Amino acid sequence: MKKLGYKAIVGSLLVAGLLFAPVSGLTTDIAAAASATKEATASIQLWVDGKQLKLSAPIYKENGVALAPMTELLNALEASSVYEKKTQTVIIRNSTLTITLAIGQKEAIVNGKTVKMDAAATTKNNVVYVPIRFIAEKLEAKVEWDQKANAIKVKSWYYQQMEKYENEEDTVYREEDKLSSKEIVDYFDESVVMIMTNKALGSGVVIGEDLILTNYHVISDATSAIANSIYYDDFKVKGVVAYDKKADLAILRTEEPMDLLPVELSYSYLARKGDRVYAIGSPLGFMNTVSTGLISGHHYESGVSYIQTNAQMDHGSSGGALFNEYGELVGITTSGMDNSLADIGFAVSAFHAAELVESMTEDMVVKATFLTPPLPDTLKGAALEDIQKLMKKEFSFVQTLKGDAEVTSWQVRRDAEGWLVFTANIDPLFYLYYGTATAGELSLWSVNLAHELHRMLPDEKIQVTISFQRDYDFQPRGLASDEVTALGEGKWRVRYPVIDMQLKDQLYIKTRF
């Protein structure tokens, strides 16, 4: 998902297509039961989010640990999975998590960290099995055993949240209480402000006499900000009162009361798929633009609930309001997909904002101050070693809709011609399987990286090369001679640049996705 903070960046993109290997299907006809060392459990059912899954092969247990066919389980939990038969490796991804399993080994690598498992992933008749509880819980789901039904029941994080709020006392929503778009604007236009920081532009929702709710990414690297109202009043921001980086939310305090109608925050509101919603924000700086659409879906990532909507948004809409037809704030507009004809936008569900407000204390309000920016104003005079550490800390991942692409092995050096040369490697498996699908996001990350490097090192000639590198036990064909190197003992290394950027006062970028 793209954050919708507006920053002007200009660059030409040359994109070369790359066809990656299709994932082979893993279907089979299981004729035999589990082996004598396994517990026979063919009758165990698997339910995910209230629906029984139709499995291609039966669940079985090993030393009391239940394993299920990988594909059906991961599809139900909205995570992608890949099995590399040659290396006996399983790769599971969602937008923020990467789990790597080796067949037969009781260890997993979860976002780069080694974690022990009670049972190993395995294959039976070409079907990949994974331990249900381990995988589901790593994906923030809840796993329960229903003895009466002889079933394993898995509830995703989002499903749990829906159950929680459905069980609360219902508010009566009557058709005659719905507001028209004009009434929504009349009530709440003054409650949404445009936020201009020294780094970016976004939107905000007034929630108190001197408090504004916005996205964390709008304010995270700012050292000053002004909130503009529809009455042409400018309110200087004193600082950040509270924030939730994970949910991408922040509460700001202005130096003076704003005398604007605050929006009420609640844990209970109507936000069903198919309901009409209204977005108010400042896309591209067009203050308090109103758009309408439907709730297209609900999603969750890493414990954060999102509302998908086709109400139109753009850069600058971040931190704006998403109202339902009853005037309830249901979301805070936060991100969207560029170059899509489907008008795909996302808003953080409003109950996360209610949780953030509950966490505030009076002392936090009094001590509101701007956050320390993650990147310095300048790197002029910095040692190459310090620049390299900064790159490793701040540019080690690219967030995409297919998960995080890890960027490793950052090196910084100065060459004989005086250029500052940055090199790194992209996760080779991510590149092979998702490089084409995430080309736009990887390109945008590259341009943003170039923008930041030029800002911090404006007088330098800079080259950044991000490469694909992977070793094979055969000599791949169809590559340039300098892209394949013999390592000996039947091993070959493939290495070539997938992002090549050069910049000073202008930017040149060539990509290979």
Automatic annotation (TrEMBL):
Lineage top rank: taxon: Bacteria
Keywords linked to the UniProt accession: Hydrolase, Protease, Serine protease, Signal
Gene3D superfamilies xref list: 2.40.10.120, Copper amine oxidase-like, N-terminal domain
GO biological process: proteolysis
InterPro entries: Chloro_Bact_Ser_Proteases (IPR051201), Cu_amine_oxidase-like_N (IPR012854), Mao_N_sf (IPR036582), Peptidase_S1_PA (IPR009003), Peptidase_S1C (IPR001940)
Listed GO MF terms: serine-type endopeptidase activity
Residue ranges occupied by any Copper amine oxidase-like N-terminal domain in the UniProt entry: 48-153
Keyword Lyase: no
Signal peptide range in chain numbering: 1-21
Name of the protein this chain belongs to: Copper amine oxidase-like N-terminal domain-containing protein
Taxonomic source organism: Paenibacillus paeoniae
